[in-house]
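Support case: nicotinamide-adenine-dinucleotide complex. Customer-provided input:
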Amino acid sequence: MAALQEKINDKSMRIAVIGLGWMGLPTACLFAETGFKVTGVDIDLKVVKVINDAKSPIPEPTVDAMIRRNVESGRLKATSNIKQAATDNETIIIIVPTAIDENRKPDYSAVERACREIGKGLQVDSLVVLESTIGPGSTEGFVRELLELSSGMNAGSDFSLAYSPIRATAGRVIKDIQSYPRIVGGFDQRSLETASALIGSIVKEKIIKVKNLRTAESIKLFENIYRDVNIALVNELAILCERLGVDFDEAMQAANTQPYSHLHSPSIGVGGHCIPVNPYFLLEKAEEQGVDLRMVHLARKINDNMYTHSIRLVSEALRACGKKLRRSNVALLGVSFRANVKETRLSMAKTVNNALQRKGVSMRVYDPRFTVEELKALGYNGFSSIERAVENADCILITVGHDEFKTLAPSKIAFMMRRPAAIVDCGHVFDPNTVEKEGFIYRGIGRGTWTK
Ligand SMILES: NC(=O)c1ccc[n+]([C@@H]2O[C@H](COP(=O)([O-])OP(=O)(O)OC[C@H]3O[C@@H](n4cnc5c(N)ncnc54)[C@H](O)[C@@H]3O)[C@@H](O)[C@H]2O)c1
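Agent response - structure generated as follows:
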């Protein structure tokens, strides 16, 4: 342990990061920036090439500049050879995807594949840290078993093994990794201390060393499930507010002035790589233990179905304009899964778009963060500007509150649309009074028919 600790202190430890995606690449960059020699490993040869060309394959702030600096200085290089990377480096950090299959069961095949390859090259006294989000018991269970089986060595006595979840969100990954306290669990004390020292070198906040690997794995899932349940709750309250004539946004802001209230914003549902997926990692474990996590199941169901409410709002708004959903033109603004990021994985905007199309609506899609070619590649009828997208539209549906939409003046687009026209704001972008003053029919999640 002393040898590894010393190598962490003097930055001579060589680090391999397996999986160079939204989380892995920023992590590799942070270690390289700190002064370590880092080998990034990815099975995608295109990703490897782009990085070795000193460019970033992901649109994540500051990562581009970090790659340029560190590839040019020789501190960061990429390869597709996992086994060799495991042989050449003393620390191997695994940040590959974890997903669910069509039956919503965890799919850990990328972690399994990585572990088998790592084991083939693993050296005595190495440290392996898993950072992918995963169900409790996985690191101690199949991860350890696969590493031991393919290396012929034992965790604890021959190599160290730790788990540390990444607490970060696309669009601000570097900042989040550096500034949030970091959770670390170890297979044994040596693993815990070495991993904590290493991760502490890129994190400015404190390292929280927890009792065991299972606890560390659970914490990440609890955080995401908390958000999922909270969002499901506000989505239901928001629908009720529309009927009661209560403005949910106003009620939420006022409620949150009480320190124990943390109501989130209602939305068309929950997208992204984590929140719609991670609950199933815990649900599987709960099922194995004979525990029925009813609230977790219910939150998933509510959030997965929330998109139908946005369709209902569009339909109602069009009816108020004297129009039918079928054969209407709807301009859908925003394809990202969250405001102000260029990330579409599991975005509910796609679900809404497809469902409206199936109902005979002609969709016109714009997102300021995507080119028209990118929108088309994502399967949308994409437009290059907001003006083109709203031209002759009967209704604007804002799915996500990008900052660019907040500066949009309804007066500037009103005359381009087929009047009477509607705006359905699910991104909390517009002041309903301003929208109605321009003659639009207004609907918004949690706001319904806007009556002052
Ligand atoms: N994206 C997020 O917001 C976020 C936040 C926190 C935690 N996480 C977790 O981090 C992990 C990684 O997520 P991500 O968003 O970075 O994924 P990603 O899909 O952006 O990137 C994963 C990368 O790993 C590569 N890869 C896949 N299998 C591999 C293998 N066997 N060996 C080597 N490379 C392999 C892929 O080619 C890809 O480049 C997941 O467990 C995820 O749940 C993600």
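The chain is about 45% helix and 15% strand.

Case will auto-close in a few days if no follow-up is received.
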